[in-house]
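Morning. Coffee machine broken again, so started the prediction first thing and wrote up yesterday's gels while waiting. Chain of 358 residues, entered below exactly as on the submission form.
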Amino acid sequence: MHSMWKGTISFGLVMIPVRLYAATEQKDISFRQVHRADGGRIKFRRFCSVCGEEVRYEDVAKGYELPSGEMVVLADEDMADLPLPSTKSIEVLHFAPAEQLDPILFNRSYYVEPETAGARAYVLLRDALERSGRVAVAQVALRQRESLATLRSREGVLVLETLLWPDEVRAALFPFLQEEIEVRAQELTMAGALIDSMTADFDPGAHKDGYREALAELVEAKVQGRELLQPGTLEIAAGPAVSLADALKASLAAAQEGSAAGQNVTKGKAVGTGSGAAKAIETGSGKPAGSARAKASSAAAGPAKTGQAKTGSARSGSARAAKADRADTKPEDDGSAKPEPAKRASAKAGPARRKPTG
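Came back before lunch.
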């Protein structure tokens, strides 16, 4: 890692020389804008809207547009005269309990490394913070912008977290907040029981960015000159609208059943007012939860292999078996994936068996 800031922590009369490092990074696959015809990179040039001339980067200045349309031009010399008392200092203002800080205020995180001369004072501040259970509220200027910040200990290292100013947090002005919405005690009890049944310790390593992995696989497939076989889609069968209480009961029963079996099952229940409201299904096993039914397309519902597709049972209520000798037959346009000729074996679908709701 490369340090992006060098200064001191001002802690009373104690000065601790430190360096800051970005503690987080966005993992993503970056793309460039290119010409579709030949793959040439797209380049952008800066042109002045008044004189039409191309503007060099060193000639670009900051401008503040007035409501009248007039522009106030600010040069770097003007910005340099602004007072930034904490330019090279993390000034500790006071200490506060960590629970008093609303997480919505957190902006960015930085690791704080001590210089050799300040290691002892650094460890002293770190240990004192851990013992007190509080965080230090500080003020710092990074990239010509002054911010509130906190200092806390994490795995033996002080972490500086910049905060948004209170007026940078938008007010949640939504119409439903002004309405009198009744919640029944029975529903609240069942919702609490559902939360309890789904409660587990948070393990960040148990989660992954599925979209980024699929995107990387797509790019790799393009590099290797092969095509990806898309798996079939799993649909939720349409059914009559259900009440909130029924949805909670079905969700709770499914959660308790999955917990007893020792499986991690994703549960969902859609509640609506129309006849098209969807019922919950257990996507982990591909079986309906309660009286819910799921339809799988005639294409593969699991990962596809060349020449052969793995399929789950197609559940459409009255679905009929697809004929293997008609690979060129197109399924109905119901949102399900279409099988590719000569690449996939057509799936046979039998009538769905209903799982007991008891």
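The CA atoms of residues 317 and 352 lie 7 Å apart. Going to sketch it on the whiteboard this afternoon.
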